[in-house]
Specification:
about 325 residues, Arc Repressor Mutant, subunit A, 5-stranded mixed β-sheet, about 20% strand
């Protein structure tokens, strides 16, 4: 293939087609007619000698070849867009920009709480619009409608940029009056009642079936390896709610340590190291290739990394 003979507009067409999964929506996105987009798809199929998008019961489904091409083309277009845009500096002290961040309750109450202090010092007019995972799709982040997603992700699209913010261990939170407060062991842990809390990834969640242990996440997966199962009485997606329940009820909340740290100075709760091994979890930030070279976005990513590094240097408190 001679690159000089390739219409680069076709790469833009393919990028949007793969993102939208629809000829009609892709045409609307590019403000061209549907026949023009259909003709573009035909030319793309001829160019790559592959159908690229195949109609199935789920709609237009990308082929293996198309999935391989998607991150490459997205990266090429992103670099080109960055190169032809006029270079502008970002001044956080004078900026009144709004950054939209999809974040879990865990990240919001730990990382972003620390970020607000930095913003007050360096960028007092910047606004954060914090959105829950249930309000956002991968598509929103990919298109740059959301600046960043901060959560624990099992998998992410190949077109996303991502960075691990930190690895976090687990801690148990229970009331100071809990029977196990002074007699902490695995037997007592399993005989007690528990709060389950988690919200990962994107999209609207569905109800939990307590009997489907394999779907309950890190804590219960490790207990299953030991042939054990805990007695979960409450399922929630909110870490603050779990902490309050543990404080006022005879319930144990097993949480990421940085979330448990929120109650470190509260005399009414006790913080314990889990009586069994749980692998650390990774909190990540992910963003679109469309924003990767944006000066303001680069500044925010660096600031978040600085806050995370400072939090990682805090001494552990569990026992």
């Amino acid at each position: 293939m001679n690159i000089a003979k390739v219409d680069l507009n076709l790469l833009v067409y393919l990028d949007v087609l793969l993102r939208e999964g629809s000829v009609t929506r892709a045409a609307n996105q590019l403000s061209i007619t549907q026949p023009a987009m259909s003709n573009g798809l035909k030319r793309l199929r001829d160019l790559f000698k592959d159908p690229l998008l195949v109609r199935t019961s789920d709609g237009m489904t990308p082929t293996k070849r198309a999935l391989e091409l998607q991150p490459v083309i997205r990266d090429v277009l992103s670099r080109l867009e960055s190169s032809i845009q006029p270079e502008t500096d970002f001044d956080p002290a004078s900026s009144n920009r709004t950054f939209r961040i999809m974040t879990s309750d865990y990240a919001e109450s730990t990382l972003l709480l620390g970020l607000l202090s930095k913003l007050a010092e360096q960028a007092p007019n910047i606004t954060l619009d914090l959105i829950t995972p249930s309000d956002v799709t991968f598509h929103d982040v990919e298109q740059g409608k959301v600046d960043m997603a901060i959560n624990r992700f099992e998998e992410l699209p190949l077109s996303f940029h991502q960075k691990v913010i930190w690895y976090d261990t687990f801690s148990c939170v229970l009331s100071a009056s809990h029977p196990l407060a002074d007699n902490w062991d695995l037997t007592g842990y399993l005989e007690s009642r528990h709060i389950w809390v988690s919200k990962t990834g994107f999209g609207v969640g569905v109800g939990i079936d307590p009997n489907e242990v394999q779907k309950l996440g890190w804590v219960d997966a490790e207990l299953t390896k030991l042939g054990k199962q805990r007695d979960i009485r409450v399922f929630t997606r909110h870490y603050h709610a779990a902490l309050q329940m543990a404080k006022t009820q005879n319930l144990i909340a097993t949480l990421p340590t940085k979330a448990a740290r929120l109650f470190a100075d509260d005399d009414q709760v006790v913080l314990k190291t889990p009586p069994f091994d749980i692998p650390p979890i990774a909190l990540k930030m992910a963003w679109s290739a469309l924003l990767h070279h944006d000066a303001g976005h680069i500044w925010l990513r660096r600031l978040i990394s600085e806050v995370a590094e400072q939090m990682n240097q805090q001494a552990p408190f569990t026992k």
